[in-house]
Amino acid sequence: MNIEKEQIDDLNAVVHITVQKDDYEPRVEKVLKDYRKKINMPGFRPGKVPASLVKKMYGKAILAEEVNKLVSENLSKYISENKLDILGEPLPSEKHQPIDLENEEQFKFSFDMGLSPEIEVKLSKREKLPYYVIEVTDDMLEGQKKNITGRFATAEKCEEADENCLLKGNFVQLDKDGKELEDGIKTEDAVLSTTIIKEEKEKKKVLGAKVGDEIVLDPQKAFPNETELSYLLKISKEEAQNVKGNFSFKINEITKYVDPELNQELFDKIFGPGKVTNEEEFAAQVKQDLENTLKMESEYKFSVDARDKLMGKVDIKLPEEFLKRWLLASYQGKDEHPLTEEQVDKDMPGFLEDLKWQIIRNKLIKDNELKVEQDDVLNFAKKSARLQFMQYGLNNVPDEHIESYAMDMLNNEEQRRNFAEGAINDKVMEYIKGALKVETKEISREEFNKLLESKKK
């Protein structure tokens, strides 16, 4: 077997593989022998079918399969042994001549390859990069405390509706004369919240109402959008857009959620037994948790800014035509609607930007010997697990449960790869923080949001 690399330019190469009869014949003969042992054919005892007949029936198919395996194995070996840093996967050359299995004994295959460019990434303390810390205001702290305690609020029945009530009742659509509209909308057990009524005139009709009262509302004026209206009247959004006129609403029940008392029982429910024992410690813990949550946003913004800075420092050329071919080939046959050239052209700029960052990131990993150990992956999985629990308001999940949940997630191969990727990304960002001069800047929530919005634009 002969393998040669033809360098087209800095970013493109062609690998030619010539397969001789001596390379594939032993493999083909072995497979044919195995077939002969297993094949059942009328008129012959098992294992006694003539070899010539087996070869005539299956020889060409086996030859094609074994040659393809041989080429694939040796191409991968060649890339590995010669440490070729390729992009995507090798593609059959567009100039490749068809293989004639019937009349030839020597076969030549050619593969186009896109090569990763050679780059240099230099960082120094002379270069500055901001790290934005979001200020925790009193209003933010009070809002967070209310959100947390609100999860443990209890529902109590009320005699009279106020600004923060839920009313359950029946809606009936009315005609212009205020009578029930024939074939109109009727909704039983609808749940209405006084907090979402947008027009004061409509809200005043509800405030002070009692169980058994029947009030008249204009839903289009009272409720903020067709989504809320469709949910309230139990109709589709399209129907909600066309709702007009008044509805009667007969109140069957009024309830109100009452915030729990700040006591040891509540503190234990939120944070775990004995971790918080008074209101001062409660406020301090809430602030710390809020700061930790905001830190994740700061880290995200820093990663975006770091990526932008390094992308601006390094000029990267890519084999774009090859990559376009590779993307089209990669998605052929994967679903009923494979990628079209138009879709690839549209998505190409974003794909190239992501690939450029991947090349820069990999260069930093290689040059600085950044490695991820098993503990790094586990810690990243535990961080992800804790975040998932926090999204459901579970802030006091014991460490052993977090670790158990993380270990379960790591049993999934795809999740394990994702966590490993997240862990190495964290290592890269930590390296960048140490290599550049990071300037910490405290800003408000509003200013931070504006920075994120400006980046999106």
Keywords:
five-stranded antiparallel beta sheet, Chitinase A, domain 3, extended, single chain, four-stranded antiparallel beta sheet, 11 strands, Alpha-Beta Plaits, 15 helices, 457 residues, Trigger factor, domain 2
Structure, briefly:
By secondary structure, the protein is of the alpha+beta class.
Class by SSE composition:
alpha+beta
What's the assembly state of these chains? Answer: single chain
Rounded Rg:
34 Å
In terms of per-residue confidence, which ranges show pLDDT below 50 for 5 or more consecutive residues?
Answer: none
Q: Judging by the overall fold, what is the CATH architecture of the largest domain? A: Orthogonal Bundle
The gross shape turns out to be: extended
Q: What's the number of domains?
A: 3
Given this structure, which CATH class of the largest domain is correct?
Mainly Alpha
**Secondary-structure element order, as H and E?**
EEHHEEEHEEEHEHHHEHHHHHHHEH
Largest sheet, in brief, is:
5 strands, antiparallel
DSSP E strands, number:
11
Distance between the termini: 55 Å
Mean pLDDT: 90
By DSSP (H or I, 4+ residues per run), the number of helices equals: 15
Helix percentage range = 40-55%
**Percentage of residues in strands:** 15-25%
CATH topology (fold) name of the largest domain: Trigger factor, domain 2
